[in-house]
Design a protein that fits this description.
The protein is an alpha+beta fold. It contains 9 helices and 8 strands. The strands form 3 sheets. A 4-stranded antiparallel beta sheet has the order 2-5-7-8, with no helix packed on it. It has a two-stranded parallel sheet with strand order 1-6. A two-stranded antiparallel sheet has the order 3-4.
């Protein structure tokens, strides 16, 4: 009884430990902390629920491996029972000679207890090939998890850069509002001394109103970008507080020096998807060998022990029961002759799996080559757009200075200053957008080549 309670406690303890292992961990963010890209990635790799499916696939593959491995261990079975009989009682059992004894009882109560042990010895590589197939599938599941993690990292990179970009655009529009208000104050001052017409003041007021509207739109987009960043990090808390995260603005331009041919070769060597497809081919080949080995016999040792009854009849007609303990050991050879075409079906399934996995591997490689080319030229175009936006900034700043100088001297109009101010603000937004889009394209290129960093 105590042993039974111990086993039950052990089972429930194991279940409890397993349940604790699969409990999802979460990380929260304090808005007062400066949130860097690396920190966002770390948070996503803990919180992102998209990783759960890949982690579950690893657990499933490991369980299948354990199931196959269990066939190598001995199988111990304890049988117990009892029956009533009105037939003559036979002394002995399979462990000893039988002797039929007539008794005066109308019925006999016979308990039985038996323990057997069976240990596989050799199966001509059947189990080893099956284990090798399961090991390959475990490794493939681990690679698939790493691939999913890289997708999560890319999503975080994209969401983080878009969020910082949105905040940068908010700052540009705030500067634009300040600049518009200064221009309005200057226009009111000139109007008060009769230097300009009232219409110029109205134009300056319109400039302020438009800049404030642009600022409202920019803040709204920043809040949406924050929602996207939270989603990328796996943060599901609902918070109506529009407080922004503190982030760094250290994104700088780095020239793109990649070579397309080298990038493709790197991708085919580094991408986890390629390794997963190759491991699946190897797993099916091992499964094929395991299926073919089913034509060979299985050698196993067996043994058992059980009590048996020896009943003797005394001179006075009474019977006496004696219990003795018997045992046996043996060596078994199991030769498969006909198994209902299951072996042929297993072989055909493995051959089909090899063909399917090989085709999928070729499709994966082709898709990766296309992906690298697309991301390569995407980064090239993004770099060219950023370089072009730098030139526009220089010219827009020059135009604004000229327009303000003309307005201050009474030669120009407020509309010139407004147009020049809007042009400069848009140019700054375009340059900032081009820079962050370039960084996003670089991250996408790194993901396509399998070199994106955690």
């Amino acid at each position: 009884m105590k042993i039974g309670l111990f086993l039950i406690t052990l089972v429930f303890s194991s279940v409890t430990v397993c349940a604790q292992d699969v409990v999802e961990k979460t990380i929260t963010i304090d808005n007062l902390d400066t949130l860097t890209l690396d920190e966002c990635v770390k948070i996503a790799l803990v919180n992102q629920p998209a990783l759960g499916a890949s982690q579950g696939a690893i657990i499933t593959a490991e369980s299948e491996y354990t199931q196959v491995l269990s066939s190598r261990f001995p199988q111990i079975q304890l049988e117990a029972g009892a029956h009533l009989t009105n037939s003559p009682l036979q002394s002995g059992s399979v462990f000893g000679p039988d002797q039929t004894l007539e008794t005066t009882k109308k019925w006999n109560f016979i308990p039985s207890v038996r323990m057997t042990v069976k240990q596989p010895i050799y199966d001509f590589g059947r189990t080893e090939k099956a284990l090798d197939s399961k090991r390959k599938l475990i490794k493939a599941s681990e690679m698939a998890l790493e691939s999913t993690e890289e997708d999560v990292i890319l999503n975080v990179h994209t969401a983080y850069y878009n969020y910082v970009l949105a905040k940068q655009i908010v700052r540009i529009n705030e500067d634009r509002v300040k600049q518009s208000n200064k221009h309005l104050e200057r226009a009111k001052g000139f109007f008060s001394v009769g230097k300009i017409a009232e219409s110029e003041v109205s134009k300056a007021e319109l400039e302020v109103a438009n800049s404030e509207l642009q600022l409202i739109d920019a803040k709204g987009k920043a809040r949406l970008a924050k929602v996207s960043l939270n989603s990328a990090m796996g943060i599901t808390e609902i918070d109506d507080d529009p407080t922004d995260y503190l982030t760094t603005y250290d994104v700088t331009y780095e020239p793109f020096h990649a070579n397309l041919k080298d990038a493709i070769n790197s991708a085919l060597e580094s991408r986890k998807e390629v390794k997963v497809s190759e491991l699946k081919i190897q797993a099916w080949r091992s499964a094929l060998s395991a299926a073919k080995s089913q034509y060979f016999p299985i050698i196993s040792a067996s043994g058992g022990t059980a009590p048996y009854i020896i009943q003797t009849v005394n001179n006075d007609g009474l019977t006496t029961d004696k219990f003795k303990l018997g045992w046996n050991v043996g060596l078994n050879f199991a030769f498969p002759i006909f198994q209902g075409l299951t072996v042929r079906a297993d072989i055909a399934e493995s051959l089909g799996g090899i063909r399917s996995a090989t085709s999928q591997s070729n499709v994966t490689k082709q898709r990766i080559v296309q992906d690298v080319q697309e991301k390569f030229f995407g980064a090239k175009v993004a770099e060219e757009r950023y370089k072009a936006s730098e030139k526009i900034i220089i010219q827009s700043e020059k135009n604004l200075k000229l327009a303000e100088g003309r307005f201050d001297t009474g030669v120009g109009s407020a509309i010139e200053v407004t147009d020049a101010s809007f042009s400069l603000a848009n140019a700054k937004i375009d340059r900032t957008t081009a820079l962050y889009n370039y960084r996003i394209e670089l991250s996408r290129f790194q993901r396509s080549t399998g070199t994106i960093k955690k």
